[in-house]
């Protein structure tokens, strides 16, 4: 039987690769083991296929009709990390790949890595920018206004404008009174 286990983890979870390129799947083991099996689940063919077994000495055993040019396994010196290398990618390589170890008459499976092979990789989404305004802008943005102590903030210019207006209006009667006083003074001087 097969069962998933926390003893194994795979990186990455998903791979999207281009035809004729190569890719790599890493299997991390929580403890040293006698070797790692690699399997592929094909959704299209609905089968679980044995690919390759690799032991810590680097010896490999391949499944039926599995190309040694296509699949290879490289193990770390710690024997707790194995990576499956797949070259000459083709759409027939699509599937979910599992690393596996044998323990107590069971095959413990890794978390799985889904590989998708396409002829052309999709382009990343374009970032759109807002069109630049041709009108000159007098006000600065809020963050800049805060740095300039509210240069365009209505909280600043509305009270200032109101104060200036009140001062101007209060000058009108004062100016009128001064004008009348001056005229009276002028008339008195000329009468005498």
UniProtKB/TrEMBL annotation:
Principal location:
membrane
Pfam families in alphabetical order = V-set
TM ranges are 156-178
Compartments reported by the entry: Membrane
* One Gene Ontology MF term: MHC class I protein binding
One GO location term (cellular component): cell surface
Instruction: Report the PROSITE patterns cross-referenced here.
Output: IG_LIKE (PS50835)
The way it spans or sits in the membrane comes to:
Single-pass type I membrane protein
Q: Which GO terms describe its biological process?
A: adaptive immune response; regulation of immune response
The organism's place on the tree of life at top rank: Eukaryota
UniProt entry keywords in alphabetical sequence = Adaptive immunity, Disulfide bond, Glycoprotein, Immunity, Immunoglobulin domain, Membrane, Signal, Transmembrane, Transmembrane helix
Task: Show the SMART domains listed in the entry.
Answer: IG (SM00409)
Ranges for domain Ig-like: 12-110
Gene3D superfamilies associated with the record: Immunoglobulins
Protein name in UniProt: T-cell surface glycoprotein CD8 beta chain
**Source organism (scientific name):** Fulmarus glacialis (Northern fulmar)
From the broadest rank down, the organism's phylogenetic lineage runs: Eukaryota, Metazoa, Chordata, Craniata, Vertebrata
